[in-house]
Amino acid sequence: MLAVRWYLRYSLSYRDLVEMLEERGLSLAHTTIMRWVHRYGSDLDKLVRRYLKKTNDSWRVDETYIKVKGKWMYLYRAVDSEGNTIDFYL
């Protein structure tokens, strides 16, 4: 459902979503996401539209090196120009 939400919110292509999910360890075909959007998109849009924060068109990515359970890892955080977190990746 995260792929459907991202598609509705950020106007990403199905192939962009495949790439983003692969970075998170999920392997899907773009046609699978397309079917999910067609099946669940309108219902999900109705449910979550009122809870979504507005973002502007200016985004930045912040990269930080942090220690997690004794192991050093990169934390990436996408923010808009007001400092609101859009997404993050560890």
Task: Note down, in words, how this protein is organized.
It is a single chain. The protein has 90 residues and is an alpha+beta fold. The chain has two domains: 2-51, no CATH class; 59-89, no CATH class. Helix content is 42%, strand content 28%. It contains three helices and three strands; from the N terminus they run H-H-H-E-E-E. The protein has helices at residues 2-10, 14-23, 30-48, and strands at residues 59-68, 71-80, 85-89. A three-stranded antiparallel sheet has the order 1-2-3, with no helix packed on it. A hairpin with a 2-residue loop joins strand 1 and strand 2. Helix 1 crosses helix 3 (30-48). It starts with a helix and ends with a strand. The mean pLDDT is 84.
Task: Describe how the helices and strands are arranged.
Elements lengths: L1 H9 L3 H10 L6 H19 L10 E10 L2 E10 L4 E5 L1
Antiparallel strand pairs: 1-2, 2-3
Helix pairs in contact: 1-3, 2-3
GO molecular function: DNA binding
Pfam families: DDE_Tnp_IS240 (PF13610)
Protein name: Transposase
Provide a short characterization of the protein structure.
It is built from 3 helices and 3 strands, in the order αααβββ. The protein has 90 residues and is of the alpha+beta class. It has a 3-stranded antiparallel sheet with strand order 1-2-3, with no helix packed on it.
